[in-house]
Structure formats: structure tokens, C-alpha cells
Design goal:
single chain, eight-stranded parallel sheet, globular
């Protein structure tokens, strides 16, 4: 039997669903009926944590999640994010001012067709606004009954502690996987010190750790990975060398490489909840079944050794996006 994990005082299935890719970031959106099938398929497989954001397709992702899952609201743990949205010029903007967060929360509630969001993250810390002010606005939403718990995304341990002094932080969301191990520097320990769950996005390396990108030239023209340093030709080739021992171990374990990557992440602590995204029902089932894999300590240590912190070539984001991230960094080659 799969052991549930706790977040914001609730128990959830160990693997959640990151909904971003259903409408956003990886090329043209998939047909609505396919997106609906993935959401309902996740529900049928026992997934309870569904993660979206106001940023994703500038609200269309929340609308999709609301339309499909509102009839099942009592069965799910619903997470969304504020602080990045469409600015006055129609482009992506970071804005953590309290008045902006209050307005966007009301807009998210309407799109999600719910009276309350279980976990509401500050998607990025707006460095022009004290974190205490942004978190204070989120705390007001908790007191108003619009939000049950507060989360932060892509923050450093220091910022997390400042935020937690204003209001309890139920979860931190950041990228964490075999090839993105920044969280291990400080923020994961800070989460444990403060009793916050850690929600890992891109837990299979945006498809890299799933052997899902055989040729970067085959990516859609508007796929965000095209601009990411790790997916540039030489970096991609060098990073591909890391996959060989991972494939060999997956073969010996009788599972897919993505399942092994997720199993490693789940093994790092019962306070960690990965939220892989997918547009495929087959991949969805593969991800969910990773929760059933019993990974022994020897195999977990082997995987860690295959992907040491400084082994991956290239930064996580292009320079313009990297400066937005408030996380502890380590050098990439």
C-alpha cells in the first residue's frame, strides 16, 4: 500500500500532478479533450494534489483545472500561485505588491470555481517588495477564508525564514531532481526546521530524465526548453552522458528511467512531494506507479553518485530568468 504524504495538514498521494504543460510552456497547447483526459485520469489513479498558477497561459490553465475538477473539489488538494501574471503591456510580469496579490487571488478563485484554495504560493519573490509585505497579504487571505495555507516558490533559506516569521509557511516549491539538486544546499533543511513540505517541480528534468527528448531540434518552436542553457547543443550532449548509468540501473530494476528518477526523489524524505507534468496518459500512469517502487539505500546512493551536484552542464534558466530566482546556487560547468 502506498503511504500518503502530508502537506498543509492534509494527506495527499505521494506524486502530484503539475498542470502547467497542459496549456503552457512546451509548444502549442494540446486539445482540450486531451487535457481533460489527463486531469480525470490522474484523479482515477489516486492523485490528489493538483498544481496550477495564474501565470500559466495567463489564467487559461486555472480555468481548465476549475472546469474539469470543480465537480471533484472535495476529493482533491488544490494548489495555485500568485505573483506572476499578465502585466499592463500584455507580457509576463512579477508583482508582489499586496494590492496586486489580493486582486489576483480573487481572479484565481473565480477561474478555479472554488471558494478557497488549499495552498496558495507566492510564485516568485518580487525583490522590489519586502517578502514580509507579500506574505502579510497572503496571511490576510488565510484570515479571510480564501486560502487555507501559504507556500513560497523558488526562495532561499534566508527568505523562507523571514517569511515564516510573518506567517507559517506550509510548503516550498522549487525544482528538484537528480539533475537539479540546489535544494540540498540549504532550503530543504530550512523546510524541515520550519515544518514545511517540499514540493518538487520538474522532477524528471523537463523530460530529460525520462529519456523523452531524443533530439532537441525536434522541440516545438515555442518550447521554453529551447532557450534553456542545459538544452543547448553541447550542454545537451554532455548531459546525455549522465543518462547511460541511469538507463542501466533502470533496466536492472525493471522500471523506466523516469520511475527511477522519481523513486530517488521520494526516497530523499517523506516530506518531499514531486509534481511531474505530462500530456500523456501512459506517462501519467508511469509517474504514479513510481510511488510503488521500493528503493534500497544502496541504489539511492548509486543514483546520487551518478548525478553529483556539479555534474550537469548549464544553468537551469536563461540569464534573464535566472536573476529572478532567489535560491542558493552552485556552479554549473
Amino acid at each position: 500500500m502506498t503511504t500518503l504524504r502530508r502537506i498543509a495538514g492534509r494527506e495527499v498521494f505521494p506524486v502530484g500532478l503539475g498542470c502547467m504543460g497542459l496549456t503552457h510552456a512546451y509548444g502549442a497547447p494540446i486539445p482540450p479533450e486531451q487535457a481533460e483526459a489527463v486531469l480525470l485520469g490522474a484523479l482515477d489513479l489516486g492523485v490528489t494534489l493538483f498544481d496550477t498558477a495564474a501565470l500559466y497561459s495567463f489564467g487559461a490553465n486555472e480555468e481548465l483545472v476549475g472546469r474539469v475538477l470543480a465537480p471533484h473539489r472535495d476529493e482533491i488538494f488544490l494548489a495555485s500561485k500568485c505573483g506572476i501574471f499578465r502585466g499592463p503591456d500584455g507580457k509576463r510580469a512579477i508583482d508582489g505588491r499586496p494590492e496586486t496579490l489580493r486582486r489576483t487571488c480573487d481572479e484565481s478563485l473565480a477561474r478555479l470555481k472554488t471558494d478557497v484554495i488549499d495552498l496558495y504560493y507566492l510564485h516568485r519573490w518580487d525583490k522590489s517588495v519586502p517578502i514580509e509585505d507579500s506574505v502579510g497579504a497572503l496571511a490576510d487571505m488565510v484570515r479571510a477564508g480564501k486560502v487555507r495555507a501559504i507556500g513560497l516558490s523558488e526562495v532561499s533559506a534566508g527568505t523562507l525564514r523571514k517569511a515564516a516569521a510573518v506567517h507559517p509557511i506550509a510548503a516550498v516549491q522549487s525544482e528538484y531532481s537528480l539533475w537539479s539538486r540546489n535544494a540540498e544546499i540549504a532550503v530543504l533543511a530550512a523546510c524541515r526546521e520550519l515544518g514545511a513540505a517540499f514540493v518538487a517541480f520538474s522532477p524528471v528534468g523537463r523530460g530529460f530524465l525520462a529519456d523523452g527528448i531524443p533530439d532537441i531540434e525536434g522541440l516545438a518552436p515555442r518550447d521554453i526548453r529551447r532557450a534553456m542553457p542545459r538544452f543547448q547543443a553541447e550542454s545537451f550532449r554532455r548531459n546525455g552522458e549522465l543518462m547511460k548509468p541511469l538507463r542501466a540501473l533502470a533496466d536492472r530494476k525493471g522500471c523506466s528511467v523516469s520511475q527511477l528518477a522519481l523513486a530517488w526523489l521520494l526516497h530523499q524524505g517523506d516530506d518531499i512531494i514531486p509534481i511531474p507534468g505530462t500530456t500523456s496518459l501512459d506517462h501519467l500512469q508511469d509517474n504514479v506507479r513510481a510511488a510503488e517502487i521500493e528503493l534500497d539505500q544502496q541504489s539511492a546512493s548509486q543514483l546520487s553518485a551518478m548525478f553529483p551536484r556539479d555534474a550537469v552542464t548549464g544553468a537551469r534558466y536563461p540569464a534573464a530568468r535566472q536573476v529572478e530566482i532567489d535560491t542558493e546556487q552552485y556552479a554549473s560547468r
